[in-house]
Amino acid sequence: GRARSGIIVLPCGAGKSLVGVSAACRIKKSCLCLATNAVSVDQWAFQFKLWSTIRDEHISRFTSDNKEKFRGMAGVVVTTYNMVAFGGKRSEDSEKIIEEIRNREWGLLLMDEVHVVPAHMFRKVISITKSHCKLGLTATLVREDERITDLNFLIGPKLYEANWLDLVKGGFIANVQCAEVWCPMTKEFFAEYLKKENSKKKQ
């Protein structure tokens, strides 16, 4: 009954987009949706049109190729983490849009693929934007920089995680077969592999 900030973990194909759009519809406030790249921005804009009754003029995309102005009192802006966090010189149009994004108090900050966004960029985006509720979506709560606890601090705790095996058994996602493949290593390569200073490369 009330919006809680946090992270929802769903495997690929389990409906992260639908969950995000449903959350925005439930909150019924302006939504800033952040994706990792321009292709994802287009996909999110399409998902909002597919799963909600929002009119086209109330969805705007903000990428390097698409600078649609935010029209009306409420709606959805879909952009990338890079576009918000970018610190360099912007075009006049981009500057106006980013000012609107900064100055508005968003009802929902919807963040896709939260596990892949670099920590410094994440902090910048969170500090630039103001929102009542933050919802992070991801397929895996594993980060290569081992700063997963930062996400809990910046967004909120894990609210829900779906078990992929249960979803497979229920017929909701495709059956997955996991296989371990052992590869031979030369003696020299294995010696390098075991060195502590190369542990980052293993990831």
Overview of the molecule:
- This protein is an alpha/beta fold.
- The protein has a single domain, classed as 3-Layer(aba) Sandwich (Rossmann fold).
- It contains nine helices and seven strands, in the order βαβαββααβαβαβααα.
- It has helices at residues 16-27, 38-51, 81-85, 92-103, 119-128, 148-154, 164-169, 187-194, 199-202, and strands at 6-9, 31-35, 59-62, 76-80, 105-111, 130-138, 158-161.
- Strands 3-4-2-5-6-1-7 form a seven-stranded parallel beta sheet, with helices on both faces.
- Strand 5 (105-111), helix 5 (119-128) and strand 6 form a beta-alpha-beta unit.
- The longest helix is centred in the N-terminal third of the chain and has 14 residues, at 38-51.
- It is globular.
Residues in helix, %: 25-40%
Rg, Cα atoms, Å: 19 Å
Give the overall average pLDDT. 87
CATH homologous superfamily caption:
P-loop containing nucleotide triphosphate hydrolases
Summarize the structure.
With about 200 residues, the protein is α/β, with parallel strands linked by helices. The chain contains 9 helices and 7 strands.
